[in-house]
Amino acid sequence: MKPWEEVESALLRYSDFLDPPQVVKAEHELWRTMWTNKPALDRPRSAVEALDACSHELMPNICKLLEILAALPVTTAEPERFFSRVSLAASSIRATMTEDRLEAICMLQVYRQCPAVTSDAVLEVFSKTQRKKNFVL
């Protein structure tokens, strides 16, 4: 919940995507008032959480700024980690995979906190895919 002076610099940078400054300032005041009255534990802790809590109908400019903020990497660590994982995944054994499967493996290596996938769910998806030979008797 930054003060207007700090948000104003973002307004200047992304003015092509936003309404006039007076409208953005009014939305910002509404946004700050909404969160000032809530306990600290109920306030969003990240741009993504804030974006989920933002009403696009009431505050479209705040939502647009939050979308931009959520899309910007904080550091270069995440892209570097991703490319490091790609090089590990692109071994000679995996060179024969389709691009979709290689991308999926890379995403699993980068984002290890994915929802628990059960073996039944994997078998269900695998059983529905087309194969050259039918293994089911």
Architecture overview:
With 137 residues, the protein is mainly α. It has two domains: 4-71, no CATH class; 75-112. Helix content is 58%, strand content 0%. The chain is built from seven helices and no strands. The protein has helices at 4-13, 21-36, 47-53, 60-71, 77-89, 99-110, 119-128. Helix 1 (4-13) crosses helix 2 (21-36), helix 3 (47-53) packs antiparallel against helix 4 and helix 5 packs across helix 6. The longest helix has 16 residues, at 21-36. The chain is elongated. It starts with a helix and ends in a 9-residue tail after the last helix. The mean pLDDT is 78.
Summary, kept brief:
This protein has 137 residues and is mainly alpha-helical.
- Average pLDDT across residues? 78
Query: What is the straight-line distance between the termini?
Result: 62 Å
Number-wise, the strands total 0
Q: State the shape.
A: elongated
SS strand fraction: under 5%
Secondary structure topology:
Layout lengths: L3 H10 L7 H16 L10 H7 L6 H12 L5 H13 L9 H12 L8 H10 L9
Helix pairs in contact: 1-2, 3-4, 5-6
List keywords for this structure.
single chain, about 140 residues, mainly alpha, 2 domains
